[in-house]
Amino acid sequence: MTEDISHMQNPFIIGERIYLRPLEPAQDNHLYSTWMNNEEIRRYFSIYPTSDTRGKERLELLYKDGKHIIFGVVLKSDNRLIGLVGLKDINNVNQSAEFYVIIGDRSAWGKGYGTEATKLMFRYGFMELNLNRIQTQDMEENVGGWRADEKALQHTAKRISGESMIVI
Q: SS3 for 24-90, per residue?
């Protein structure tokens, strides 16, 4: 039985409770800049202030860059954008990339959405982009990031065979 996706906005990868979709710079730039300016989030991701205009420009640049893939993390229940997930520094020759996830909506913290987004991106990176190595660089104090990566690693390692690996 196929899932009804008619209420979703441009779903690209569909999970159990979330889906990943392309970001719309004109629509999503305010949330992006709000999250990047949040003190707790910028501690791990960005030290520079971001305005709505700069956020829109940044998102547009990321889509033009062939070494970066970014998706919005959206709740299936209410179509609410709660975060970002992506692969950066994609190297097609070495078949490698660096992974990141940001759950920017504080009301969604601690509910496993980061873990689910991580699993979806690892599967996409290994199975569809044919990567052999995906690494994460969580800071030591980013306990939520470590937990999401470890849970996704346990799940993904069971599904992927061969030379693929995840470096945390």
A: CHHHHHHHHHHHHHCHHHHHHHCCCCCCHHHHHHHHHHHHHCCCEEEEEEEECCCCCEEEEEEEEEE
Half-sphere exposure of 162 (CA within 13 A, CB side): 8
Question: What is the amino acid identity at position 138?
Answer: D
**Tokens 């520079």, residue located:** 48
In a domain, 5, yes or no: no
Q: What is the domain count for the chain?
A: 1
Q: Which residue has the tokens 């490698």?
A: 96
For residue 106, is it within any domain?
yes
Single-letter amino acid, residue 25: P
What is the CATH classification number for the domain harbouring 111? 3.40.630.30
Per-residue pLDDT of the chain (168 residues; tens, 9 = 90+): 577 888 889 999 999 999 999 988 888 888 888 888 888 877 777 667 788 888 888 888 888 888 999 999 999 999 999 999 999 999 999 999 999 898 999 999 999 999 999 999 999 999 999 999 988 765 455 555 545 555 555 555 444 444 444 444
Residue 94's domain spans which residues? 13-167
